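Quality-control log, excerpt.
Job 1 of 2 completed; input and output follow.
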Amino acid sequence: MGTVADVVGAALVRLGADHVFGVVGSGNFHVTNALVKHGARFVATRHEGGAATAADAYSRLTGRPGVVTVHQGCGLTNAMTGIAEAAKSRTPMIVVAAEPAASARLSNFRVDQEALARAVGAASERVHGPATAVSDTARAWRLAVAERRTVVLNLPIDVQAASAEFTDPPAAPSIEPPRASDAAVTALADLLANAQRPVFIAGRGALHARAELETLAARCGALLATSAVAKGLFAGNDWNLDVSGGFATPLAAELISSADVVVAWGASLNMWTSRHGKLINPAATVVQVDIDQSSLGAHRPVHLGVVSDARLCAVAVTPRSRAPLPVSGPIRYGVSSTPAAAGVTSRSPTTAPPRTSTREHSASPSTTCSRRNAWWPSTRVTSWATRRCSCPFPITEGSVSRRPSSRSVSDSPPRSAPPWPTPAGPRSRRAATAVS
């Protein structure tokens, strides 16, 4: 028989935690040791904010839940910016946070940790005692995975020390993503069949649906664009417009503005993607496909809202969509060839000549970004998807921090520890090392 801290660590590893990021203090020392003891790799960071951001990046890069471990009170408050970004980005992440004992009412570390979590959009769970330690941990894990939530799992110090016996976590129920109704599929297919100049805008919710969206776009003659966080999803496609919104090239903005049907796939159409609502033609028919019903029309009115997984919806619509109109994509938009040949790529700020600084021993941000873009590895997670940074693999580059920064996971200098692994395949040619 061990302690609750040991049981929680063992349960998390059994549920699938393989890497954990954090800063160790007296409050989370034992649970962190338990995670390592049962097989997780611990990556120490210099600050809890870095730990939360690294776990967020790890989840986006691998598709697995990120795990963070922090001290009570100040450890959690230090991590809040990273937790807020993960929560707003719907990153599945568990933050194991120590918590003062219920009897320690005057502890300097006491803050309302549950309120802190909820204030930034994260969920809050708690390990209540030895008898429920495994089920409490499993509940937090299921919430993070099934609903793509960032969850703060509070672990009171007095509860951690109590004796407990480990049991296998209950099996998680199989959850199928939502599928579009027949009526919604038919309505969307009809809109695309009659569209003169359709445009698809794919967001984070469509990162897994590239092939299906390209197939449907080819059938109905749609041009392809993305939100900033899905930048690079359609890289190499002849009809790729790259980013929609403030980072759009002039030609891409012109083509998007001329669309008569705009379909957002897993994209919120917020003010950044729509240039404060000015990019989408007021006369255009707007469709939004999202797994979260509350997201439909949240940022702007839509004519058709479809509750569905983006990939499943595209698969369902493709066979029902009629053949495209006789005049196909490029001619409809007034260009004689593909967007790339027409100048979308060549005019991109990524390849434009960088500006130079007039100050001695200094460089402009545009010069720095352009030069970094040349030597960065193709698989990377950056702190901001800048206009001058290409992104061949969208799932590995996201808006990990809303504030522009010159630091990234890949920028960190090598340490003596071996690199932590990433999934096999073309998106993992270079594993990140330690994180500052």
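Job 2 of 2 completed; input and output follow.
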Amino acid sequence: MLSLQNICKKSSFDLHNKRCFRISTGNKSLDVHLKGGIPLGKLIELIGNPGTGKTQMCMKLCLNVQLPRTLGGLDGESLFFDTRRDFNPNRLKELADEFERRYSTAGKSKAMNAEQMLRNVHYVQCTSPAHLIAQVRMTNKYLAANPNIKIIIIDSLSFALRMIQTVRQRYELLLELYVSMRSMLYQHQDQWIVTNVFTNYYNRRSKKYCRVPGMGRMHSILVNERIWFSQNGTYYLGKNEKTRRIIE
């Protein structure tokens, strides 16, 4: 006979007391609002115009996840899907060198080696939407081969989808990607980061163009949180532009 305990494997007490691991963004104010950083088991979108620092934050997350647990990290590794062919390994090396100097000078950790940190960032170039979805589907194999991967980044998701001409095909691919990502979030409790840009939308009522996030309105429903980047370096949190809150 089935009992409630057999059906319900966890109680609300278990969920309340479950420890939530987080990865620091490298920005103190943003980390405070995120209660210590971006949590594992979530799908986060970084949105902003080109040159506002989205890729740099992705690189910092790839390094912060490697910090020892005693320093707030996860002793983890990362997987980076590059759709724009804009990944700069030299910039990542500069950030890794900065990490090595910071922690070796402070005497906090002898394990922070810049070259090893670069080896822990696994890189995949995706040249087309079909290539991207094939690689995302294969992520289960990547994680099985290297369970230490804690963060997966797609930079940029919107760039890959722009290659698709019809809106219908674009949404079909987007939904297929999110189904795969959600499934892996549930299985592995890792972290997915996608980047997005703004686009111009013609409002028929006002007969004016307005700036909106790419990939359509429904996209905001599919992510757990949005971090908005501005040209002046200010960050915002929120699902849409009207309800977002400034990070100070």
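Post-run check on job 2. Residues 167-188 form the longest helix (22 residues).
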